[in-house]
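I'll show a typical protein example:
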Amino acid sequence: MKPAAGRKPATRPTRLVARFVAISWRDLAVSFGPILLIAVAAIWVAVRLIQPAPPSTLTISAGPQGSTFWNAAQKYKEILARNRITLNVLPSEGSLQNLQRLSDPNSNVDVAFVQDGIAPGAASNGLMSLGSVSYVPLAIFYHGPTVTRLSEFKGQRLAVGAEGSGTRQLALALLKANGIEPGGATRLLPLSGDDAAQALVSGKVDAAFLAGDSAQPAVMGKLYRTPNVQFYDFTQADAYTRRFPYLTQLELPMGAFDLGKNLPSMPIHMVAPTAELVARNSLHPALSDLLIEAAREVHGKANIMQRAGEFPAPLAHDFPISDDAARYYKSGKSFLYRLLPFWLASLADRLLVVVVPLVVLLIPALRLVPSLYAWRVKSRIYRWYGALIAIERSALSDHSAAERASLRQRLDAIEDSVNGLKMPLAYADQFYVLREHIGFVRARLTQSRDTRRDGWRDTSGDDADEESAAAGAGAGVSAAGGTDEARPAVRADHAGERNRTPSAAPNEAAEIGELGETGDEPRDEAPVQRRRPSD
C-alpha cells in the first residue's frame, strides 16, 4: 500500500526587521536607574547631615581692654589668622556680660571667656565648653591681726569687686557661706583692681578681694611687701572646694614672690575657679579645633599658679564639654587636619561624608547591573514562550478550519512582534532560537491531524506487505528447491517497499505519543488484508 501524496503546506513570507545593536541603552538605563536613584538619595541625605563649610569670621567677647583675657583674645586673633580665619574681639565688663551675650540669640558673639560659678544652670541655654583655659585665683589682702576665717571680716569695709564682675560674684558667694550678706553691718564696696589695692593701702577699706588681673604675681608681691598688709591663707580651702565644686585648691609656694628673700616664707593656700572658653553649640567642629589649639598655645605655659601643659583642660563645671572638644582632648586633630592645610582638610572632610556612603552603596549595587541588564533583554524573548506553548497544545486537538486560522493569526502576530525586536548582538543566538521554535510550532500547526493519521496507517500497511512478501518469497524458495538468484530479488523487493514508506509518519506518530494523544483516540483504519502467495 503506497502512501498518499501529502500537500505541501503553504508558507507565509516573513521579513526580518529585527535591529541588532552593540548595547541596548534603554535596558541599561532601566537597569542602572534604580541604583542611580539610590545614589542620589544617599547624596541628598549626606548633604542634609553634613556640616557646612566653616565660616571665615568669628566673634569673641573677651573682657575689659588691657585685661588678661583681652590680651589673650588678641593672641587668639593672630593665631586664627594663620588659617585665614578672622576673629573679631569685643571688649566687655567681664564674665557676666560675656555670658549674657552668648545667651542672646540676637548677638553675633560665638565664643567668650566665662568664669566658673557665675552661671549655675546655664548649661541649658545651648552653650558648651571647649575646656578650661586658666585658673582665676582669689587673693584676699587685709589690715590688722591675722584672720583665719572669712567670718571674722563681719562688720568691716570690704572691696569685693565691681558690679557684674566675676570677682564680685565669687566674693559674695564665699561671704554668704560665712554669714555675711549685703545690707548688713558689713560694707561691701564695688571696688576692683588697682582701685581696690590703693584703697587698701590708703586705709579706706579693711580688706580687698582680688581675682584675675588684680591677682597677678606682680600685684600680689607688691601688696605682700606692704607694711601692715597680710595675705589671707585659706586654711579651710579643702572645705570650700567641696562645698563649691567649681573651685580648685591651689598652693602658692614658698619663695614665689622672691626666692632670695623667700617671700612668702611659707606656703599660702588659695582657692580659684577656672575660666572656661564657652561657645554656642552651633560652633563648627573645625573651628572648635582651631580655638583649642590657640588656647593651648596661649594658656599652656607655666607660671607660679600652674604647670606647663596644664591648660587647656576638659574640666566640666558650669558647662558640658562639647563632643568635638572631648574628641580633640582624647585623640588630637583628625588625620586630615594633621596632614593638610586647614581649608583643604575641611573640604576633604566634608567630601568624605558624601563619598563614603556612595562607595558603600554603589559598589555592591553596580555588581547587580549586568544581571539586571541580562534579565531585561532575555525577558523580551522568554515572554513569548507561554503563547507558543498554548498554540502548540491547541494544534494537537481537533479544530475547525476557522479555529486553525485563528491560531495561525495568533502565531503570525507573535512572529511579527518577534521580528520587530531590537536586540543586542550578544543575545542574537537566543533570538534565533526563538524564531526556530516559532517555525517548529508553525509546522505542527499547518500539518492536519488527518495527514498524520494517514501517514501512520500507511506505515502500518507497508509493514504488513513486507511481512507477506517475505513469507511468499520463503515459500517459493522452498518449493523450487532454493536458488541463489531468487534471494536477491526478494531482498530488492523488500527494500523497495521500505523505500516507499513515508519517513514523516513514524516521527509524527512518536511525537503524538509523547504528548499523550494517540493512546486516547480510536484507530479507524481497516484491517490489513494479507494475500496468500500464489501456488
About this structure: The CA atoms of residues 399 and 449 lie 9 Å apart. The first strand starts at residue 19 and ends at 21.
